[in-house]
Give the backbone structure.
Amino acid sequence: MTQADIRVAVAGARGKMGTTTIAALRSAKGVTYAGGLVRFSASTSGVEFDDLRRLIAHARPQVLVDFTHFPASKDIALAAIDAGVRPVIGTSGYGAPDIEALRAACSRTGVGCVFAPNFAIGAVLMMKFSAEAARHFHHVEIVEMHEAGKKDAPSGTAMATARRLASERAAAKLAPFGRAPTALVRADGARGAEMDGIGVHSLRLPGVVSHQEVAFGGDGETLRIAHDSASRASFMAGVLIAVRAARDLKDFVDGLERLL
Ligand SMILES: NC(=O)c1ccc[n+]([C@@H]2O[C@H](COP(=O)([O-])OP(=O)(O)OC[C@H]3O[C@@H](n4cnc5c(N)ncnc54)[C@H](OP(=O)(O)O)[C@@H]3O)[C@@H](O)[C@H]2O)c1
């Protein structure tokens, strides 16, 4: 460790994303893994804590990467902001009011926060390219696929994409998205959920890490923009970008795109 290293703690340190993040922090330059937040600490290693205040007091992190579960994640992030520690949040399950609560906490305290529904660079570009397409197509459906054990649906990426596409059309003063009606639905949910006029379909299967396709339909044509994460390593470049940006951040950043 050098003087300039960023001290980073990880909430959800024993989870799948938490352990991958700790390994990435340990092999990256300019950052130091300072300690982990776990639900129940049986550790005697001295770097894991089951209480955020004790973690902050002992590990003195500047940035806290959060890969836990919602709503615990929101409580952790708001408490971190109040303690002057900048959260980098990857946990999914946040709704629009929860995101606004984070934004308000940042403006009240001047402590920044990065909220990133997806840290994979390709997924960020998928959302950006989809936003461009949203200005040209009136019909769109989102299909996302994640591991069978994922606790929430739709995925944070799918919800962020739907919000982004709808606001893109609103900003361009275009009619909201329309959904083709189905006269006879033989099984509930066959057309998926609806968010901002967009059909959202969540598939849960063993063996999958993360996949999303944004399918646009026009007269006689379709445009499909898809992204796959084949392993959790795909998220680590984005996590490190967010951590490095977060150290001196004073406001709320919604999505990784602004930091690329
Ligand atoms: N933004 C992205 O790019 C991205 C990528 C992948 C995943 N994710 C999201 O990241 C989150 C974590 O995913 P994962 O696959 O790592 O899940 P996971 O394996 O279930 O890990 C979550 C960890 O958080 C712990 N935890 C839950 N509540 C806690 C609390 N109050 N205090 C401390 N620790 C707590 C869990 O402990 P217990 O086991 O005791 O419950 C578990 O160890 C999910 O919301 C997922 O959708 C985001």
Q: What stands out?
A: Residues 42 and 246 are 30 Å apart (CA to CA). The first strand starts at residue 6 and ends at 11. The mean pLDDT is 95.
